[in-house]
Amino acid sequence: MKSSKRNILRYTLLILWCTISVSAVNAQQKPNIIYVLVDDLGYGDLGVLFQNQKDKNLPALVTPNLDAMARAGAVLSQQYANAPVCAPSRASLLTGVNQGNAHIRDNQFDKALENNHTMATVLKDAGYATVAIGKWGLQGTDEKQRPNWPAHPLKRGFDQYYGYTRHADGHEHYPVEGVYRGKKEVWNNYTEVSADLQKCYTTDLWTAKAKDYIIGFEKQHQAKQPFFMYLAYDAPHAVLELPTQSYPKGGGLNGGLQWLNQKGNMINSASGTVDSYTHPDYANATYDDDRDPGTPNKPWPDTYKRYATAVRRLDDAIGDIRALLSDLKIADNTIIVFTSDNGPSIESYLPKQYVPNHPTFFESYGPFDGIKRDCWEGGLRMPSVIAWPKRIPAGKVVNIPSMLSDWLPTFADAAGAPIPARVTGVSLVPSLTNAGKQIAGNVYVEYFESGSTPAFSQFEANHASRKRNQMQMVRIGDLVGVRYNIKSAADDFEIYNVVKDPKQTNNLAKNTDLSGLQNQFRNRALQLRMMDQEAKRPYDSIAIPGVQMPKSTKPGLKWSFFPGNFHYVSVSNQSKPAASGVVQSLATVTAKNKGMIQYQTLFKIDKKGTYTFRLSTAGKAFVKLHQINLLDADFGYTSGKEIEKTVSLEAGYHPLSIYALKGTNNSLKLEFKGEDGVWHSLSGENAVY
Predict the structure, then answer these.
(1) 10 and 44 share a domain?
(2) CB-based contacts of 621, cutoff 8 Å, min separation 6
(3) Dihedrals phi, psi of 182, to nearest 5 degrees
(4) What is the SS3 assignment for 335?
(5) What count of other Cβ atoms lies within 10 Å of the Cβ of residue 451?
(6) CA atoms lying within 13 Å on the CB side of residue 316
(7) Are both 396 and 366 inside the same structural domain?
(8) In this structure, is residue 538 part of a structural domain?
(9) Residues 157 and 286 reside in one and the same domain
(10) Who has the most CB within 10 Å: 187, 217, 277, 358?
């Protein structure tokens, strides 16, 4: 009987082969992609999101170019950083993996980005040229390997790189003069080039380099190949330095910033006096410091003139780049995203005569509480704006919750490329373009920092001065569960409806009997993460709870087959499989044509305990338990090698998803053992659907 079913499966796969290509989008249709990531810019710093709605007597930032971009495209009003500090946030962004599954967590600055799928590897595989410009900070901590750091951008999918490789180098915006933080190194691929960069303010330097790359690329390729640019600015993050002069007039191909490529005069703003230019809108700005119209307004402190000028410079850069896209006639089919890595900071790195930098001055955190390193909304909500004239309606507001880790699958989807199975994010293309069905994503953050939320009077008393330590944030629908200073997995979540109560003033867990919802948040937090030895948590050893048992089940594993020449294990973005069915075991599938098979099942655990899973395959495969990346036999996997992972599970039913590339005679073997040490195969005896 089993043999007959296997033959039926093989036959079905043969006759239902279709010629659907996973790269159905041809080179001419694939959009160029520019991802602009700035450093420590708050949600409230953008005019369109917050500043434009403020009382005119209060100090305000002006971002005309970003406001125009929002009008032409879309605002993502509920997008979250994966972590409230740069290194883990950027790592999750580039890999598409949340902090519960990430290799870089907490404050692991300069730790090597894992050698796995990244935005760049996925898009390069889809035919893109890839370039990274600006701040990296994920290269590896061993300086003896300089300049061949283990996770140099060129080793993580990028064809070209120009920028600050080390995290701390981004704390100084004049690499040659080193006005406040000393001289820094700028790298052109593996060559250090700072000696030629006199008077180069890094916001200008990265912008001019980005424009130079785009101009050269389009001239050479004439729209026959798309490009992906990761443009990571190190501003407005400290040090709060000023440019040398006003932004060059005009913009685009013949105006704005220009790459001159001359030693000592590399860009057309590399003249004048370093750290000297304040934008005229802010040079003589005053404000109502006591909110009393009967008293004179006071001048802005210099610290905030500097911050405002740095933000305005970034805004000018965006306008300049968008003008270039229009001049080159590639704007319609170029995706450009602007966002930040975490909430606003209290850092300035300026001498003592300057007042401290407090985000309260501009209310950079917007309508929320919290800043960088906080898991309140103000530390995690991002100022995300996207334009893609060909596909995104003008003036759109996307209100679904999302994370920075959703951008990798979004770009893959836009490029017609498969989404790696390892990715925990989801494509936002349906919500952005009003085409297709939006898959709900998961919003989850975990982070440790030994400090406290600042004691700002503008923050709720229950938030100000709150000890941070171990923190978690989980979002379910409109509700956000937050835990600070976590001692155990049993600690309650504070629960807020952040749509109705963005400042998180009303802790629903105090006012309502939400015991069932508390359990839902606790369970969800455990089902979204895997422990990491270098970022230990007080809930690491807690058994992962199962899901509610369906009303009716049948033994076996549901399978779906997607034909195509997949280069890596992926979550198919095809709407329907070419074939599907049920099997009682992970049988060898012989297919005439290549493709990918996905198995979905509920793994039944009779007894709480520790369980080890073991996987081997002649091809490539990936296993998820709940939303946990359990076993990775994909990127860099050696055929036939056994890999295993041990987890603690509660008795009950646990969702298992198994993704495997299939060709001729590609075997797949998944086993498990409990505390009795006996290995068992996954089958209809322990798996239901």
Answers:
(1) no
(2) 569, 615, 631, 633, 634, 658, 659, 660, 661, 668
(3) 85, 165
(4) strand
(5) 10
(6) 22
(7) yes
(8) no
(9) yes
(10) 187
Whether pLDDT at 377 is above 70: yes
Strand duo 227-236 + 129-134: pairing: parallel
Q: What is the CATH number of the domain that holds 568?
A: 2.60.120.1560
Contact 324, 253 (CB under 8 A): yes
- In this structure, what DSSP letter does residue 484 have? S
Tokens for 405, please give them. 């880790």
Output the domain CATH number for residue 96: 3.40.720.10
Q: Which two tokens stand for residue 198?
A: 């006199």
Question: How many other C-beta atoms lie within 10 A of the C-beta of residue 64?
Answer: 14
Q: State the DSSP string of 198-214.
A: TT--HHHHHHHHHHHHH
444-488 pLDDT, tens digit per residue, is 999 999 999 999 999 999 999 999 999 999 999 999 999 999 999
What does 337-370 look like in DSSP terms, one character per residue?
A: EEEESSS--S-----TTSPP--TTTTTTTTTS--
Q: Nearest 5°: phi and psi at 615?
A: -130, 140
Rounded CA separation 2/5 (Å) = 5
pLDDT at 27: 52
Q: pLDDT band for 12, please (50, 70, 90 cuts).
A: very low
Q: Which two tokens stand for residue 323?
A: 């003008």
Q: Which two tokens stand for residue 561?
A: 């087959």
pLDDT band with cut points at 50, 70 and 90 for residue 588: low
Q: Residue 26 has what pLDDT?
A: 56
Would you call 9 helix, strand, or coil by DSSP?
A: helix
Do 460 and 558 lie in one domain? The reply is no
Closest CA to 9 of 557, 578, 589, 577: 589
Map tokens 């600055």 to a residue: 109
- Cβ-based neighbours of 68, under 8 Å, separated by 6 or more: 319
User: Which of helix, strand or coil describes residue 574?
Assistant: coil
Nearest to 164 by CA among 135, 206, 140, 190: 135
From 441, 474, 505, give the residue that closes a domain.
441
Q: How far from 463 is each of 45, 107, 374, 474, CA to CA, in Å?
A: 21, 22, 10, 17
Report the mean per-residue pLDDT for the chain: 94
Q: Say yes or no: 378 and 505 in one domain.
A: no
- Characterize the bridge pairing of strands 668-673 and 679-681: antiparallel
Our count of domains for the chain comes to: 3
Residue 589 contacts by C-beta under 8 Å, 6 or more apart in sequence? 9, 10, 13, 597, 662, 666
267 and 380 housed in the same domain: yes
Q: Is the domain of 335 the same as that of 460?
A: no
- Terminal CA-CA length for the chain: 20
Of the two residues 112 and 565, the one the predictor is more confident about is 112
Domain that holds residue 487: 445-527
CA atoms within 13 A of residue 673's CA, in its CB half-sphere: 9
Q: Is the pLDDT of residue 593 over 90?
A: no
Q: Which residues contact 130 (CB under 8 A, 6 or more apart)?
A: 120, 123, 124, 157, 158, 159, 160, 227, 228, 229, 230
